[in-house]
Structure to design on (1556 residues):
C-alpha cells in the first residue's frame, strides 16, 4: 500500500540554531496547555490525474484550542489577513466577536465546503440548540491549494476525515511534514506541509523583573506551509535559496501557494491583543523569505485559552484577567510569535520528504545537506566574495 | 400540495411615497443591465420539527452580476461588514482582490457549505483549469438564519437547488417576499425575505450640469431581510413599529436576525469606491429602524459590471474608465444606494405574506392596512399629542 | 459686542417624541458619570472675509472622558470611520491600543494642528516624562469645516482657546448649538453645531430579567454636526426636508460637510465592543437622513470610563469586569447609541439659531414651527395623497 | 559649530550582497521619476537637557511624490499600519480616498502639529480656495520619537524647517543617516535615521515574457528608522545582532522606537493595489529582525505617480491604465518593495555615524567592521557549531 514518506528530522535536530526565546517541551503548538492536534492523511493512487478518482495526496488537520465543548464555552481569538487570496470560512464572525466556537480545520481549497459541512455534522448532535433555538454555529476552516500533487477537484475530504482528525486530536508531539492537510502542499519550490514550534515566555507579574514573581506562558504556532519560490528561501535568515540549485523538475512558473498560520497562547489576552500577535506571524513568515506574493493567501488565526466565553452567560459579565499592552510581557509574547512562526515553517520544510503526486508531479524534500553546507560556507557569499568564507 | 403564499403588493404600490431619485424600470436590482436573479424555493411539510425531514421553509437565491463566465471575466466588487455575526463564504478574497468571480448565492446559515459545494459542482465542468493548473475559485455565499420556521439542521439546499437557481436566473421583474433564500426569513417581528429596488442616477459627464451631456447609471439593491424587532420598524421614516400591536404569537425574546444586502451598479467604479457604496447600504438599513443588534449579521457586497477583469490577462493592464470620487456623480450614486436599500427592505416586508413553519411557528405578514392608517394619522403621535393628528 | 445667538429649545422641548429608551437626567453626554464638556466660542467681526482677521465664527470643544490625569490613567476606546474624508489626529493609535490618553478636542479643519499643539502645551507641564523618558502622547482632535461662515484660513483657535475649553469642562447641562467648535457649523442646509443626548440602559446582571438585580448604565453622545443637505432631513424619521422650502440663500451646490460623533458609556466594555457601539452612531446619523456624502467626513470615537488603564502598570494585568457580547445588555447599549445619536443631531439643529458670518453668508436656524406643522400634517403626504392627512 | 557626523558608506558599498532585483541608478526612492526628497537638519547644543533650549538633534524630511501642485493634481496612494502605536496625521483621508494631496513630511512625535501647521502655511498662499470655497486640505505627516537624543519637548521644527525641506527637495542621490527627521533617531541599539533604496522591475506588457515588449518600473523606499533592539538585528538575513556586543552605554530597557516607510512607484496601480505594496514593506522590515514591538509605531504610505487625480475634474472620469493584479508584473513589484525596504533600513544603519545628544546620551554608529567579520564567520555559528566556520 502506498504510504506517505516518513518524517525527517526537524530544523533544530539537524543543527539549525534559533537564538532567542527557548522552545516549549515539544516545540509544538501543543505546548500551550489544552491545545490538541489531529490529522487525517489521504495518500493513494499514482499516475495520471483522473478527477474524482485520484491520485490523492491530501487530508485534514484539526487544531483544537481547548478541551470541552467550544460552542458552549468559546475562546478569545483574532484573525489577520496578510494577503487575502484565499477561501477560508469563519473569519468574519471571528473578526466581529473576537472568539472561536469550533476547532480550526485545515484542508485544501476546494474541500473547504465539505470539511465545513463535516464539521457541522460533527457539531449538530453535540449541540442540540444549534439551528433550533435560532442560534447557529461559526465553523472555522482554513485552506491551501494542493492541486499540483493532488486530485483537488475530487474533493476527497469529507465528514469521515473530519471526524477522524477531531477524534484523533492529541497533545504532545505533533506529526509534521507530509501529514493531514499538509500531505499535498509545497513550499519554496520543495515539499512543504505541516510544521509547528513554540516559545516559552516568562512574564514578570510585578513591575520589577523579579523571577520569583514570574509567570510562564507559551506561544505556539502551527502552519500549513504551501507558499513561495525557491529563490526566496532563508534558513535562520541566510538566503540559501539564492544559491540552491532548483529541484530536478524546476519550479512552477507562478507562485500560487498560500499559508495558514495558527497561533496559540495561554497568556490572558483579549481579541484586540490577539490580533497584535496574529500580525507578528506575518513577520515570522517574512523571515523565511516570503514576499506574500499575489497568489499567496496568507491567513492567520490567533487564540488564547486562558479564559472561556460562555454561550449562555448566567451573569452580565465576568471578572477577567487581562495583560496590559504596555507591560513588558506583551513584547515577549510578540517576539515568541515571530520566532515560533519562523521555526514552524522551517520544520515543515525540513521534515517533509519527497512526494510524487498526480501526473507524476514531484515535490522534492528540501536538500538538507546542501542547505547545511551552504550555511557553513555562507559568510563570504553574503559579502559578494565568492562562495567560500 | 403546500405552497408559499402569493406575493402581496410592493411598498410603492400600496401608496408609500419615496421622495428622492426615480426608480428604474422594474424597481429591481435587474435594472442594472446584465444583472439576473434566480430563486429556488423549498416549501413542504407541516407540524412538528423532525430534523432532517422538515417542515422545510427555505431555499436559495442567485444574483448573477454579469453574463458569461465570471471566473474567466470577473467584475470589480467590494464587501462591507456592518456587523460580522454571520457565516458567509468568499468575503476575504473579495476584500483583497476587489472582485467577484462567481455569482452571489444566498441561503440559510447551516446550508452555506452545501451551497458552496454545489456552486463548485456547477463551476468545475465549466472551468477545467480550476484545481488543476493550480488556480482555484472563490465561491461567494451569504446567509441568514431561518431556523424559526425551517428545519435548518436538515440542510435541505444542495447542488440541485443551486443549479436550479443559477439556471433560472432572469432579468426583469424579480420575485420578492417568500421566495428563494427568503422563504423562511422573518423581519421586524413579521415575515421577511427577499426584496429589491433600484434608482436611476443621472451623471453629468462634464463639469457643467448640461443634460445633453448626461449619462444614466443605475444602482440596484437586493436584500435577504431577516432582522430586527417590531418596535424598531420605520416605514418611510415613520416609526410605526412603536405603535403597531405585536403579532399574535409575539416576538422572540432576542433578536437573532441578519441581513444580506447586494448592491449592483453599472457605473464605472473601482473596488475602493464600491466599498463606499457598500457602506451606504448600512445607512439605508438604518432608515428602516434597524440598530444592527448583536446577533444580526449585517453583510453587504457591492459590484459594478461596467468593466470586466480577465482571469488570464493577455496585456499588462487596461485602459479603464473610472469615475472620479470628487465628481458630483459619486454622491448621487451613494444616495441611490441608501434609497434603494431602504425601499428593498420595505418591499420584502410588504410583499411577504404569512407563513406557518415548523412546530406551528407563525410569521405574520406585515399588517399593511394598519401601517397605512398609522402613517396617515401619525403627525400628532410623533409630537406626543395623542394618537390622532 | 457681537454675540452668538441665544440657544433655542431642544427637540424634545418643542414636542418631538422619541419613543424608545429613556434619556438620562440632562439628556446629555455628561449623564455618563465622570464625563465633562467645555467650550470656547469665538464670535467676532462682520462683513467681508479678510483671511487672518475675520470674521470669526469658530471655537473649540473639549470632551473629557474621566477625571484625573488621563495620560497616567487611560480609558478604553475605539474609533470608527464611516466616511474618511476628514483630517483628525489620534485615530491610528486609538485603533491599535484601544484607548484614549487625552481629552477629545473638536475644532475646525485647518485648526487641528494648532489645537493639537495647544493640547501638547497643556499636557507637557502636567506630565514631565512625555518626550524625555522616550514616551510621547497621542493627542486626539476631531474637526469639521466651518469655512462658509468663518475665516478658517486664519486659524484662530490656539493654546488659549484649548486651555479655556479644558479648564471650563463641567458636568450637568451642556451648552448646544452655536457654541464651541459648533459656532460656525451648518447642517442639512440650516445652522448646525453642537448637540448632545443620552439614554439610560438597564442591564440585568443575571440571566433572568429580575429588576432587583438590574444595573443602570448610560450611553451618551455629543456631536459636532456640519453635514448634509436640506432635502435629506428626517425629524423623528419624518422626511420633512423633502417638503421644507429652502432657506433664503439656498444651499451650497455641494455637500462638503462632516460630523464628529463622540460616544460615551459607563458600561464595562473593551475596545472591540466599543467599536461595535461606535458603528451604531452611524446608524443614528442615517436616521436623520444623512447619506454620508463623498465630502462628508463621518468620524466616531467611543469610550467607556468604567475602568482605567495605567500608563505604568505595577502588575502584569488586572481583574477587569467585561460585559459579555451575548448578554442582552449589549443590545440595549447598541440601541442606546443609535437613539442618542439621532436625538443629539436633532438637538444641534433645533437649538442653533441663525448666524451671519463672513461675506454676509447666512446659516438660518431650522424653521421649527414649519417643521412641527409639517410633522402634524405629514400622514397623507407620506402616502402621496397630498399635503393634508 | 556643532555638526552632524559625515555619512558613512552604504550597505552595498561595504560589500553586503543583495541578491534579487537590481537597484535603480541611485538606489534611492528618487529613482522613481518625479519623486524628490528634501531635508532640514537641526543639530545644536550639548550637555544637559533644558526643555525648550536643547540640545537639539532633530529635523524634518519631505518626500514629494510628483512635481506640480499636488492639491490640484493628486496621486493615488494607500496607507498600511502594521503597528499603530504612533501619532501621524493624514492617514484617515488617505485610507478613504486612496490619494495624497500634499508632500509627505517626517519629523519627531511632538513636532507633528507644528510641522502640519507649517505645511498648511506653505499650502494656503499656493491654493487660495482652501478653506474659502469650503474645501480643505489633508496634510500628511509621519513621525518617530527622537527624545533619547533630542529635546523633543522643545518642538524645534516649525514652518521655517518645513519650507526649507520642501524647497530643498531634489532628485538624484538622497542624503541618508543623520539627516532631516533622522537626525535624532536610533535603530536596533545603534544610531539610525534616514535610509533609502530602490529596485528596477521589468514587466512584460503581453502574456509572453518577451523582453522586447517589456516596460520598466521602479519601486523606491525611504525609511525613517528608529526601531528595534540590538539582539534582533539581521543583516542580509544573518542574525548578527545575536552575536554583537552591545554598545558601551547599553540599550534602553524598553523598545520604544518606530519606523515610517514611504513606498513609491511609477507603475500604474490603484489604491487597493498600493495597499498590497504597503503591506510588503512590513515584510522587508521583518527581514531586518524587527518584531514590531508594542511601542513601535510601524507605519507605511505607498503612492504611485503614474497618473494624477484632479481636484476639480472637468470630466466624469478618465481612461486610466491599471495593472492587472494577476499579471506577473504585480508580483515583481511586491518583491521590489520587500527588497528595497530591507536595504533602505540597512542603509540607515550603515550610513549613520555616532551621535551624542542631550544629557550626553550616545547612539553609536553600527560597528561595521565587526558586522562584516561576523558575517564572514557566521556559518558555523548559525549551526550552533561555535563561532568559526
Amino acid at each position: 500500500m502506498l504510504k506517505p514518506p516518513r518524517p525527517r528530522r526537524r530544523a533544530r535536530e539537524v543543527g539549525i540554531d534559533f537564538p532567542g526565546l527557548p522552545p516549549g517541551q515539544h516545540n509544538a503548538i501543543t505546548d500551550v496547555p489544552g491545545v490538541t492536534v489531529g490529522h487525517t492523511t489521504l495518500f493513494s493512487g499514482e499516475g495520471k490525474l483522473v478527477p474524482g478518482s485520484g491520485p490523492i495526496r491530501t487530508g485534514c488537520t484539526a487544531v483544537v484550542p481547548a478541551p470541552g465543548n467550544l460552542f458552549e464555552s468559546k475562546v478569545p481569538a483574532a484573525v489577520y489577513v496578510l494577503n487575502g487570496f484565499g477561501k477560508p470560512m469563519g473569519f468574519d464572525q471571528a473578526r466581529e466577536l473576537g472568539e472561536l466556537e469550533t476547532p480550526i480545520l485545515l484542508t485544501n481549497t476546494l474541500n473547504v465546503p465539505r470539511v465545513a459541512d463535516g464539521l457541522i455534522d460533527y457539531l449538530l448532535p453535540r449541540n442540540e440548540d444549534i439551528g433550533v433555538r435560532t442560534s447557529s454555529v461559526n465553523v472555522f476552516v482554513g485552506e491551501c491549494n494542493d492541486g499540483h500533487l493532488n486530485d483537488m477537484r475530487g474533493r476527497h475530504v469529507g465528514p469521515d476525515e473530519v471526524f477522524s482528525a477531531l477524534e484523533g486530536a492529541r497533545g504532545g508531539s505533533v506529526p509534521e511534514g507530509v501529514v493531514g492537510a499538509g500531505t499535498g502542499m509545497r513550499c519554496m519550490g520543495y515539499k512543504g506541509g505541516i510544521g509547528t514550534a513554540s516559545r516559552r515566555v516568562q512574564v514578570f507579574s510585578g513591575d520589577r523583573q523579579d523571577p520569583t514573581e514570574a509567570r510562564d506562558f507559551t506561544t505556539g504556532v502551527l502552519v500549513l506551509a504551501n507558499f513561495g519560490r525557491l529563490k526566496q528561501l532563508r534558513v535562520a535568515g541566510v538566503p540559501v535559496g539564492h544559491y540552491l540549485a532548483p529541484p530536478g523538475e524546476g519550479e512552477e512558473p507562478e507562485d500560487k501557494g498560500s499559508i495558514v498560520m495558527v497561533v496559540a497562547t495561554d497568556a490572558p489576552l483579549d481579541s484586540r491583543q490577539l490580533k497584535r500577535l496574529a500580525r507578528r506571524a506575518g513577520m515570522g513568515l517574512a523571515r523565511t523569505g516570503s514576499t506574500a506574493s499575489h497568489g499567496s493567501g496568507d491567513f492567520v488565526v490567533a487564540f488564547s485559552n486562558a479564559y472561556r466565553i460562555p454561550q449562555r452567560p448566567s451573569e452580565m459579565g465576568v471578572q477577567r484577567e487581562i495583560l496590559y499592552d504596555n507591560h513588558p510581557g506583551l513584547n515577549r509574547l510578540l517576539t515568541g510569535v515571530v520566532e515560533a512562526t519562523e521555526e514552524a515553517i522551517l520544520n515543515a520544510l525540513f521534515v517533509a520528504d519527497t512526494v510524487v503526486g498526480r501526473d507524476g508531479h514531484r515535490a522534492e524534500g528540501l536538500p538538507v545537506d546542501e542547505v547545511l553546507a551552504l550555511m557553513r560556507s555562507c559568510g563570504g557569499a553574503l559579502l559578494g566574495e565568492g562562495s567560500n568564507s
Notes: Residues 47 and 358 of chain B are 6 Å apart (CA to CA). The longest strand of chain B covers residues 214-226. The longest helix of chain B spans residues 328-351.
